[in-house]
């Protein structure tokens, strides 16, 4: 083809530069395509060399990890006191969301939740007493994730709190989570007013024994099946749990009625679950945790098994790097705020609930729940685009968790840190937003991409292990 031939034909452009170049072509009616290409994340050339040298071993390790994850069978088997069942739980220990953190670095909502937890526990009678005790050194803190547990938002678990007990029926490991209080002014968002503590005590005195009896009578509840159905009904089981909560309600309502002991208790318990669309969140989270924990400690694997935030730091762990944390700063979500609040009021992202994204749900499955993107003025096409992008960094697809709009394609599952770095695509998360000051509670909900630095650090950490 000569230069003359080129200019006699319709010009078709493939743009790999700034998107503004394509916009200029669009303005003059030229046919053009924008290539969505990004340079890899910045990691050392030595780490790149090591990862490339061990590519085959990494691929084999990841295949083993994903086989374990995809075979996981999370079941709800009961409820119990945290001190009685959570491994390593002690009377002076408080579990929290996210990677490790000390009192002096805790954000406002986490401090508020600790204060409320100490009042609930009877260790303090006023917020001032609780704050003094929290900072005294007599209380120890540890991540929920290091004790087979997860907690939404601040994620505070006190020794006497009732927790769901989940079992992975395929591999035999357990996971734990507190019960969901509902939205708004609640402990997990850092509120500690008297009505917050009163609700927690009702949950302890009424809800806990009623559910404990009902599950004992009903037998294990298959949570994987409920999650699979909920995805077909418009949930992504992180920020939207309406369908999953309804399915759980249907599964357990007869046993609650039959074992409650009196009609008032049965009515109150059923009304509480029915009135709290997020009740299933505290089951979807440990369902993902118990699934992912079975795949830990596979040398050479680049698959993420924990992704979490404490309102100050964002942290991840890999299947191939043991219990090592890779952390960076937590970011503020793009959110729709409740009336009277703005981005200036928002705390950086917080909570263990991104364990759902880590297991191919939440933001990774948002194409099954496009209503979520309305939180930030998005459209259905945005939800589809977010999920399609997550396939680029996933190690596998889940044949059980499917997205109807994508012709029942399995959700992108298993975040591969090598792909994240190579393609410069960060995990997409949908989340709630807490006020940055303690005692106020939830102020909105929204979406964000994960922090970049934990993934580059994890890449470097995996390379160091492989070299060693």
What report would you give on this structure?
α3 (45-53) packs across α16 (453-467), α6 packs across α8 (194-218) and α9 packs across α10 (242-259). The chain has a 4-stranded antiparallel beta sheet. The protein has a 4-stranded antiparallel beta sheet with strand order 11-10-9-13. β1 (12-15), α2 (19-27) and β2 form a beta-alpha-beta unit. 50% of the residues are buried. Helices cover 39% and strands 20% of the residues. Among the domains are: 11-40, no CATH class; 45-68 and 292-467, v583 domain like (v583 fold, Alpha-Beta Complex), CATH 3.90.1700.10. The chain is an alpha+beta fold and 468 residues long. The protein has helices at residues 3-8, 19-27, 45-53, 55-71, 82-85, 108-120, 127-134, 194-218, 223-232, 242-259, 263-274, 281-293, 355-358, 380-391, 417-423, 453-467; strands at residues 12-15, 31-34, 74-81, 93-96, 140-143, 162-168, 174-178, 221-222, 304-310, 313-318, 326-329, 334-337, 350-351, 394-403, 409-415, 428-434, 442-449.
**Helical segment count:** 16
| Cross-sheet strand order for the largest sheet | 7-6-3-8
Query: At the first level of CATH, what is the class of the domain at 45-68 and 292-467?
Result: Alpha Beta
Helix content: 25-40%
CATH superfamily of the domain at 45-68 and 292-467: v583 domain like
Major sheet summary line = 4 strands, antiparallel
CATH architectural type of the domain at 45-68 and 292-467: Alpha-Beta Complex
Show unreliable segments. Answer: none
Radius of gyration: 23 Å
Q: Residue-averaged pLDDT, rounded?
A: 93
Net shape: globular
Distance between the termini: 55 Å
């Amino acid at each position: 083809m000569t230069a003359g031939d080129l200019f006699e034909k319709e010009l078709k452009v493939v743009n790999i530069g700034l998107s503004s170049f394509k916009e200029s072509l669009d303005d003059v009616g030229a046919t053009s395509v924008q290539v969505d290409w990004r340079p890899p994340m910045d990691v050392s050339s030595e780490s790149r060399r090591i990862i490339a040298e061990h590519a085959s071993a990494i691929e084999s390790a990841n295949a083993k990890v994903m086989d374990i994850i995809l075979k996981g069978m999370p079941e709800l088997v009961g409820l119990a006191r945290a001190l009685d069942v959570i491994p390593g739980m002690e009377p002076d220990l408080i579990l929290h969301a996210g990677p490790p953190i000390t009192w002096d670095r805790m954000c406002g909502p986490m401090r508020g939740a600790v204060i409320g937890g100490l009042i609930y526990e009877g260790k303090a009678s006023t917020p001032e007493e609780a704050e003094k005790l929290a900072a005294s050194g007599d209380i120890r803190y540890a991540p929920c994730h290091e004790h087979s547990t997860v907690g939404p938002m601040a994620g505070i678990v006190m020794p006497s709190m009732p927790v769901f007990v989940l079992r992975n029926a395929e591999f035999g490991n357990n996971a734990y989570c507190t019960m969901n209080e509902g939205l708004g002014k609640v402990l997990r968002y850092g509120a500690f007013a008297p009505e917050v503590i009163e609700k927690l005590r009702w949950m302890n005195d009424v809800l806990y024994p009623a559910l404990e009896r009902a599950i004992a009578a009903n037998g294990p509840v298959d949570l994987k099946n409920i999650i699979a159905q909920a995805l077909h009904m418009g949930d992504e089981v992180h920020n939207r749990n309406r369908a999953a909560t309804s399915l759980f309600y249907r599964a357990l309502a007869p046993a609650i009625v039959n074992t409650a002991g009196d009609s008032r208790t049965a009515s109150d318990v059923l009304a509480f679950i029915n009135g709290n669309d997020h009740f299933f969140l505290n089951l979807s989270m440990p369902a993902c945790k118990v699934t992912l924990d079975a795949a830990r400690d596979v040398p050479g694997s680049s698959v993420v098994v924990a992704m979490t935030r404490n309102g100050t730091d964002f942290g991840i762990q890999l299947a191939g790097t043991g219990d090592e944390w890779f952390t960076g700063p937590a970011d503020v979500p793009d959110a729709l705020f409740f009336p009277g609040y703005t981005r200036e009021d928002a705390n950086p992202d917080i909570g263990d609930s991104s364990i759902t994204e880590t297991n191919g749900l939440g933001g990774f499955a948002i194409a099954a729940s496009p209503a979520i993107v309305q939180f930030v003025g998005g459209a259905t096409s945005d939800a589809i685009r977010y999920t399609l992008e997550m396939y680029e960094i996933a190690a596998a697809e889940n044949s059980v968790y499917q997205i109807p709009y994508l012709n029942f394609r399995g959700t992108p599952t298993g975040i591969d840190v090598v792909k994240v770095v190579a393609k410069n695509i960060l995990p997409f998360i949908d989340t709630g937003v807490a006020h940055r000051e303690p005692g106020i509670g939830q102020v909105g909900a929204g979406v964000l991409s994960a922090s970049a630095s934990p993934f580059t650090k994890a890449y470097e950490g995996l390379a160091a292990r492989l070299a060693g």
